[in-house]
Amino acid sequence: YLFGSTGRNSFLIRNPGKKFNDKQHISSATEVKLLFARELQNVQRNKKATAARFIFTTFLSLLVGVIFLGVGGKDPSDPVNFNGQFGSLLIILMMSMFGTAMPSLLAFPEERPVFIREYSTNHYSVSTYFISRLCIEAIITAMQIMIGILISYHLVDLQMNFFLFFSIMYTLAMTSTALAVLLGCAVEDPKMATEFLPLLFVPQMLFAGFFIATHIIPGWLRWAQYLCSLTFAVRLSILAEFSNCADETPLPGVENLCKRALMSNQANKDDVWWYWLVLCALFIVFRLSALFLLKKKASKFF
């Protein structure tokens, strides 16, 4: 078990035979390094949970890929084909959001006793603990997303650029984990954290533009879409997937379904930079809010 950095035990482990000095300063970089090493050890020790996370991702990606096999390469002018294309895209995005947010939501309540004990003995600061957690989450999330889209992207036969799709999925996943961490820091009991799952997922689906067009939602509630990362990930994805067919001239009497999908979801090519900006801003705001909340709760505890 690795300790933080500024505690007596950590110093004695790294400097056997030397006298511990309470006033000795340890850099934040050293704290992050040691905490990150401990997080890696925890991942290695908890092999079953880590393996289950990747196994479920692989299984669900294969299931979605087989169900929507090759639908991305079919003619989008056919309503049946287009519904399959749009549906597969949304399902893949939702899988990336749900599969990565759940572990992050439960992590902080489960580790709260250890964190409180070590923080009270001045082992490390809240910021360095938070950064180390972010680093390990970013790595595992990237691996999980890559495995998922390597399977689903090719089986569904999506037409957008692979690396663009990975960027959208990864940004969505990291923003979703940021919100999950914020909710996780707000509660103390892991069981209570599970009660927040509907709050984390249901609004995302309602504002995604699949069940109802966002412009139909009452104006006094429409602002909430700017707190839902899935909304902007969907817009980026359908722009990347359906922009080419939206520019095509349909046959007489045939509606351009791609163009209708872009319009109903208010997806505009000129606003792509804005969608990316909102996703990044949500990630930063959720993470900083979680850091502030965790620090406040840790200080209040004592």
Architecture overview:
This protein is an all-alpha fold. Helix content is 72%, strand content 0%. It has helices spanning 8-14, 28-45, 47-67, 79-120, 126-156, 162-185, 190-194, 197-206, 219-222, 229-246, 257-264, 272-301. Helix 5 (126-156) packs antiparallel against helix 6 and helix 10 (229-246) packs antiparallel against helix 11 (257-264).
Key words describing this protein structure:
single chain, 302 residues, mainly alpha
Quick overview:
With 302 residues, the chain is mainly alpha-helical. The chain contains twelve helices and no strands.
Mean pLDDT: 85
Low-confidence stretches: 1-6
Fraction in helix = over 70%
Oligomer: single chain
The number of helical runs is: 12
**What structural category arises from helix and sheet content?**
mainly alpha
From the N-terminal CA to the C-terminal CA, the straight-line distance is 25 Å
Question: Major β-sheet, in short?
Answer: none
Radius of gyration: 22 Å
Overall form = elongated
Strand content: under 5%
Order of helices and strands: HHHHHHHHHHHH
User: Total number of β-strand segments?
Assistant: 0
